[in-house]
Write a structure and sequence with these properties.
The chain has one domain. The protein is an all-alpha fold and 430 residues long. The protein starts with a helix and ends with a helix. Helix 5 (97-110) runs parallel beside helix 7 (140-148). It is built from 19 helices and no strands. The chain has helices at residues 2-18, 23-37, 42-78, 80-92, 97-110, 115-133, 140-148, 151-154, 161-170, 178-205, 229-244, 250-265, 273-305, 308-323, 326-341, 344-359, 366-377, 387-395, 400-429. The radius of gyration is 22 Å and the shape is globular.
Amino acid sequence: MGILLIVIGLVIMTVLAVKGIPILWAALVAGVFVLATAGLNIVEGITVTYMTGFSGYIMNYFLMFVLGAIFGKLCEVSGASDSIAQAVVNKLGEKYVVLAIIVAAAILAFGGVSLFVALFTLYPLAMSLFKRADIPRRLFPGVYIAGAATFAMTAPFTPSTQNIVPMAYLGTTLSAGMVSGLIGTVFCAVVVCIYMQWRVGSVKAKGEHYVPLAGEVEESGVQKDLPGLIIALIPMIVLILALNAFGLNVVVGLFIGCVVAVVLYWKWLPHTMAEFWKQITAGAQNGIMSIANTAAVVGFGSIVTATPAFGTLAEIVQDFAQNGNAYAAVAISVAALAGISGSASGGLGIAIPIAADIFLPMGINPEALHRIAVISSSALDSLPHNGFVNTCLQYTHTNHKEAYFDIFIVSVAVTIVETILVVILFSVMG
């Protein structure tokens, strides 16, 4: 019964979030429900248990989130992300529109640019190409998410939040589980590209065309002054090398990336100090909001772990791991939490500390645990209630009926298969 009440608490949080209630409040309401039904002290549960989880997560990851958001803002404001996107699109051209958008989105995501910044950057370029190639607008969300929110977020070496979170608990690096992880990455990348290319042909064969929005205006043709491709890429390359080749602390690596970005992008950044710091502050605020939302989910997870029923749940998971497949137990646990919370990083924030306590004493390879957790966190996080999915649909003037099927295929179905593949690889190869 206790386990059922925990699940109901998770559902309450999810439903409230889908209804538009900020996750900060949704997590608190769900937390109060779990505390009350578990017979625990509500005041102590919120002020001590919840806040311990909330503040602990912020303490561990605050600078990472803020510096990462500032780095993304520098790429956005300078036009560096535009430069990279345009270079990829121009290179591949109209014939390979789908591949161009997927590759551009993946490069931006792998380079540390946020999903939102990459979306705002690519959408106008994509619509210009979609119009010329007569591709229906409703396919763009699937194409974009295929590149930005699948393999690029879970691959070894990527500086994504999902890939960073497990490091603090498992003592691993961004390259953890490299061989099996890269095999899974290649599989996912190839499949989503083939699927979306086939999907475009299938939809066009049925007579669908690009339909302009009401009041849509033609592009002026005026070219913005943008950084060259090499200059645009250098800060991203420095960031990736700092974290992987040199093994620097994540915060140090992000700080160096930001400094390099400011130096190289200076010509294209606001030249008044007031405007410059306004943009830096805006980036920092984005990071603070992101970590607060994730920390709220983690705080809810702390309440769950304090309930008597959680001990029973942990025993079930541990028994499954001992008598079945430990890697599968990790994948199922993380995927379920990410799916219910509608957040890969939120699901990881709840699952990884618990998984570390359960599985590491069992002798489970921490690198395998890291990579499986990261990939499986993206298996169910893109369900219809996911915040970014809804933002993407709204921004692109589409809806769930028109576009979600393709989002589901590339970011849920394919990622589930990738998760199974990686679990099998680790089970066989160790």
